[in-house]
Design a protein that fits this description.
By secondary structure, the chain is α+β, with helices and mostly antiparallel strands. The protein is built from eight helices and 19 strands. It folds into three domains: about 100 residues, no CATH class; about 120 residues, Jelly Rolls (Sandwich); about 80 residues, Phage tail protein beta-alpha-beta fold (3-Layer(bab) Sandwich), CATH 3.55.50.30.
């Protein structure tokens, strides 16, 4: 999977963060959009810095609006300088509030996870116990093994685990909504806006094993677990396991939801206009070529794909 040999400079990352604020938290004017396009195209490292930083918009969306603006909005310089905003962003990253995406761009190597992926990247990892893991786009995990147990920590994003059942040690899994446990389970974990999606394909997984009322999750079950610990059977418009085979497989998924899902695999901005968001999408799409997916959408639905730049794409009515 290709990587750029040159990392963007810290100043370029800081510029990308400022553009993120202007584009994600304000309604950009045509003049602002033109300025962003000029900045993006003026240096290849600007595009790389934007790719690294753009995922922070989804993380910041989970923060209270006033805090996210006070943290980053460079137009409020009377409250604090740009440096102060970036320092506060780093503090939030250290505290876990911004997850993996904030760590590398802000120069916090001490917080690097054992294994990670960038936007649009997937990676297979084999544990020393013989377990097979796969990381989805923009994800990170830590693995720890001791004589008593195996432990997986989902730092950010999405991971599938196929536990080696011949290893008698229990497999403990730590997430932001709580712990899970298994021995022979094949399972999938995904952080989302509602908390954590848990899908079990084989074996059994215990949700909250150390709580007074643990929940045993069986093969075939898919649960949505909230940050407060409540859970319910998940209602999905697609196959949660599809990405492990490199595909996005959906059935009657609203276009707005589909675009949000597809945007996880593309750097930059991918937007869907409200007037077409309810259109339904069905099919199996190869994640290796998101440009082809956009062309297929334009061919099968009454929509138009508008490119302001390679990293700024809007989907509207044809």
């Amino acid at each position: 999977m290709p990587t750029d040999a040159r990392a963007p400079a810290q100043a370029q990352v800081e510029q990308a963060i400022e553009w993120l604020v202007k584009l994600r938290f304000d309604t950009p004017s045509p003049h602002t959009e033109r300025q962003f396009q000029q900045w993006l195209g003026s240096d290849p490292q600007h595009a790389l810095a934007w790719q690294r930083v753009s995922g922070l918009g989804d993380e910041l969306a989970g923060l209270p609006g006033a805090l996210s603006r006070r943290t980053l909005d460079s137009t409020q310089r009377q409250c604090s300088s740009r440096r102060d905003h970036l320092k506060l962003l780093a503090v939030l990253a250290v505290g876990g509030g911004l997850g993996w995406a904030a760590r590398e761009p802000l120069g916090l190597p001490a917080l690097m996870a054992d294994s990670s992926t960038g936007t649009g990247e997937r990676r297979q990892v084999q544990g020393s116990d013989g377990s097979q893991l796969q990381l989805n786009t923009a994800s990170a995990i830590d693995l720890r093994y001791s004589s008593e147990q195996r432990e997986l920590t989902l730092v950010r994003g999405e991971v599938s685990l196929d536990s080696n059942a011949s290893d008698n040690r229990p497999f403990r899994i730590s997430t932001r909504v709580g712990d899970l446990g298994t021995h022979d389970g094949q399972l999938l974990l995904r952080e989302n806006d509602q908390g954590l999606l848990l899908a079990v394909r084989r074996g059994e997984v215990t949700l909250f094993p150390f709580s007074p009322s643990p929940r045993l999750v069986h093969a075939g079950e898919v649960l949505q677990v909230s940050p407060t610990g409540t859970y319910a059977l998940a209602s999905l418009h697609g196959d949660p396991w599809g990405w492990t085979d490199g595909v996005l497989s959906v059935q009657q998924m609203p276009l707005g939801e589909f675009v949000a899902e597809l945007s996880r695999y593309r750097p930059g901005l991918l937007r869907c206009a409200p007037e077409v968001a309810a259109l339904k999408v069905s099919g199996t799409y190869q994640l290796a070529d998101t440009e082809k997916i956009l062309r297929l959408l334009a061919h099968s639905l009454p929509v138009r794909i508008d490119y302001r730049t390679r990293y700024w794409v809007s989907i509207g009515a044809a």
